[in-house]
Amino acid sequence: RIEGQLSDLASNGGATGLPRILAFQSIADATVSTKAVVEALYGRLPNEGHRLVLFDANRVGTDRQILKPELFAERDRLLNGPVLPFDLEIVTNERDDDFPVSSWVRTAGGTEVKHVPTDLIWPRDLFALSHVAIPVRADDAVYGEMRPARQNGRIWLGHAALYGERDMLVVPETALLRLRYNPFFPWMTQRIGEFLETPERPWPEPT
Question: pTM here?
């Protein structure tokens, strides 16, 4: 229904003048696909300062051998594909064999990809962010990275590792595998602040 409304707006020119949209999305998102965000939303918007920030999958380690190859194809497809009507930033490994993270920026209407260094590091045991992880701080008492010293009767779901036999839990085992906090949360809030404070594209100086 929303997609249909967006199509109607775009075909009638009604999408022009919308407030600038900033979205953060995991490439591995199983709830809202990257393709849907890019094509059904951002692809219908005029070039008026909208921005999409994508968190790529972690490209380091032998664990990659058990992950689906298509998880790693989206980054290069978007950075090297057709011209986009919005600013695109992809947060990914500086190099495919190292944990430091940089971002790669492609501005609306352009083909050049700019490298922007960060001080971010991929946590070793995470292969990607999830849909529910994006807005949650790493120190959240329920969903965060570290078990709180005092749980006060609350169940900690952030980074719980429960081992034993299958089918013994009252919640699906797959639910405990889903990342529920964003290790890059402070960087994300900085980006939001820059977007709100600057009418143009507030990119750090590329290298």
Answer: 0.86
